[in-house]
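Hi support team,

I submitted a single chain yesterday and got back a structure, but I'm not sure I'm reading the C-alpha cell output correctly. Could someone confirm the output below corresponds to the sequence I sent? I've pasted both exactly as they appear in my results page.

Thanks,
R.
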Amino acid sequence: MSSDLWDAPVDEPGADVAVPHGDIDAEMILAATAMARPDVVDELAMQGFDPADFTRDQYRWVWYAVEELRASFKGGDIRYIAVDRKLQAWRAEGRIPTVPLNQDELGELYAHAQHGSADWYAARITEKAVASRLAMVGADAGARARSATFNADDDVAAIQSALDDVVRTGAQDETRLVGTLLEEVLTDATTPPTNDDRIPTGFMDLDSLLSGGFAPGQLIVIGARPAMGKTTAALGFARAAAIQHGIPTLFESLEMSANELGRSIVSAEARVALHHMKLGVATDDDIQRMARHAPAVSAAPLYINDGATLSMPMLRARVRNLVRTAGLRLVIVDYLQLMQAPKAESRQIAVSEMSRQLKLLAKEFQITVVVLAQLNRGPEQRQEKVPQVSDLRESGAIEQDADIVILLHRPDAYEKESPRAGEADFIVGKHRGGATSTITTAFQGHYGRFVDMANT
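Hi R., thanks for writing in. Yes, this is the structure output for that exact sequence:
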C-alpha cells in the first residue's frame, strides 16, 4: 500500500463522496399522492416508510403538511390550497429551513397524483436513501482507516453500528384483532415447550417455574454480592445449553480469562477438583474422567470471549455475526457494571442505557440474553442477609428492563456454621408473566458448579 494513501489528510465523512441521487420523480408522485389520498400517509407509516428519506426538501415538507392536516380532514383529498396555507404558516414561524413550494407549484404537483402505486414509489425512495446512507458509511470507513488515530476496536465497532442504521427497519404495524390470536393461544396451551423454543437452565425446579427454561427475546438478570457464585451460575447455564443440549451460546467474560473459564467448565462436567487442576496435580482417575467428557466439551457450540473491553456496539456486532453463522440463541455477559458505558450525564443513566440496549438486543435477534449484575450492600445490612431485587446496583432500570431477575444467596457465605451449609438459593424475584419462587440448589465449590439438590 502506498504511504501517500496512509498519510493522506482525513476529510470529513462524505466531503467528496459520490452519493447516489434520489428518485426525484418518485418523490414528486408520492408527495402529490399524499395530497390526493391522505390516508396513504398512515398506510405507509405502518409499513415503516420514513419521510426523512425524501431527498428534495420541498416534497418532504408537503408530506409533513399532509400529516398535520390529516387529523382535521375527515375524508377526501387535501387540496393544495390548504397545504399552501400550512406551509406558509410554518415558514412564517421559522419552522421550515428552506423555501417551500408556492401555491402554483403545489397545483402543478397535485396533478401528478397516482392512486394505486404509492407503496411502489415509497419503496423506490427508501431504496435510494439506503444506497445514499451506505455510500456515506463507506466514506466514513475509509476516512477512519486512513486516520493516524485509527483504533481497530473503536472504529470498526462504530462502522458496524452505522451499518445497522443503514436499513431502517421501521415500526411495522403489528396490530391484530384478539380473535386472530386464538389459534396460537390454543396451540401453545396444548403443546409443551421444547428445546426449540426454550433454553434449559440445568435445574429441574427452575425449568419448571420458567415453563421449560429461558425464552427467546428475554433479558435475564443474575444478581448477587461478590463471591456468591455469579460466574459459576452463569457457566452452569452455558454448560446446560451448549454442552448438554447443543444450543449455540456466547459467553462474554470481562472478569475471568478464557483459560480459567475452560478449567471451570471441565471441572464441573468431569467432577474433577478445581484445586487439582490449578495446582497441576490431577490424578490418573481425574485424567480418565476428563478424557470421558472431552468429546462432549469439544463438540459444544460454546463461544468464549475474554476481551478486556466490551461495548454495546462490539457486542451487537459479535451477536449479529454468530446469529448468522452459528444460529446463536444464548448470550451471557459477565458482568454489566464492567461493560464499557456510553457517554452520559451520570453513571446511573449510562447503566440504564446499557440495560435497555441489552433488552432490545434480545428482542431484535430473538435470542436470550443473560447478564450478571452486582448488588449493592443492602443484603449485608439486613439481619437475614437475603438479597432483594431493589438491591440491584446503580440503576432501577435493570429491574424494569429484565424479564426475569434471579438473585443468588448462600447462607454459609455469611455464617460458616450455618445449618444450611452447602446450600444456595436461586431467588426468582421477578418473573414477567409468571410466578416467583425460591429454588434451593447445592453449591459444590470444589467442582465450580451448582446442582439440583436431588443430584447431591
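A quick pointer for reading it: The chain has 17 helices and nine strands. Let us know if anything else looks off.

Best,
Support desk
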